[in-house]
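Sync notes, pocket subgroup
Present: LS, DG
LS reminded everyone that the earlier model was apo-only. Rerun requested with tryptophanyl-5'AMP included. Inputs:
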Amino acid sequence: MTRVFSGVKPTGHLTLGNYLGAMRRWADVDQHKADALFCIVDLHALTVDHDPARVRRLSRQGATLLLASGLDPELCTVFVQSHVDEHARLSYLLECVATDGEMRRMIQYKEKAAREQARGGSVRLSLLTYPVLMAADILAYGADEVPVGDDQTQHVELARDLAVRFNQRYGHTFVVPRATHPAVATRVMNLQEPLSKMGKSDDSGPGIVYLLDEPDVVRKKVLRAVTDSGREVAYDREAQPGVANLLEILAACTGGNPSDLSGVYETYGSLKKDTAEAVVEVLRPVQERHKELCADPGYVEGVLRDGAERARAMARPTVDAAYRAIGLLPAV
Ligand code: TYM
């Protein structure tokens, strides 16, 4: 029986990258596997400079969008990380298994720490230990599979390493998880900077398609996407990153294959036009359902309440077992 865990952090409005790289597959495939859990990982949003009211708002909106994208609480568990204490409890134990060197090698830490320092800010200790908390998210539930975009692969590898190390030192406690990725759009790039990931916390608005962008805004952003200096429409991520990104987005939205699609288009303009319409069509049902759910906030709250209860019951035995295995005296 497969157990699946994944999460999204409320650091910005959710993007087309989040949707194509992760959320859509959670709804189409992953929630149908036994015991799938999907989490708004709000503790992770505190690792960089944050506005408390905004994190709360984005957490609620993120949960609503998970349901709008098709997650069904009858099939899976949708919850908020901070509602389940087991994440923080386990994170500390894993900090006692992870090393400082391992943390400093994480690509996202290096990038984000450099960005904070360039802004003149200081780097929160929690940014360094973030991947340990992420490992705790996964290991607490005994997840076998972690469906994520490509940018999270290194973090899932760390979760594997920590699980193996803990098991070797203290006896078998954790399932060793593995990352799974979508066939295309595993890394959707910023439309204005096709060498950078389309990230929700980035500042470049025109290059990011948000899930709640109005159709005309989506069209404008896609039609203004940066393309490459050549003329030919070819699927070549190295030589033509802008065009390759559009082909991948189009393929992900229409179920095609980027290489095959490159043969269909003679001009960048026609590729952009079809991509824009394909994105609008993919987002339409999500936006409609989001509107309905916003009219019924009690429903979303109820889903999160039940979800936290179910998640707690699933995580507690594993985390309690880890407490015992590592040498802590059980409370009587
Ligand atoms: P986050 O919130 O940055 O992103 C959520 C999911 O969306 C994917 N994603 C993308 N996929 C393709 N192209 C993009 N441009 C793009 N941007 C984001 C991410 O790969 C991710 O799957 N650390 C995680 C959250 C997390 C988590 C976990 C995930 C915390 N604990 C445990 C899985 C399991 C993160 O920051 O995702």
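DG: Residues 4-182+296-326 form a domain with the Rossmann fold fold (CATH 3.40.50.620).
LS: Residues 5-9, 17-18, 21-22, 41, 44, 134, 137-138, 146, 148-149, 151-152, 155, 185-188, 197-199 surround tryptophanyl-5'AMP (CB under 6 Å).
Action: DG to write up.
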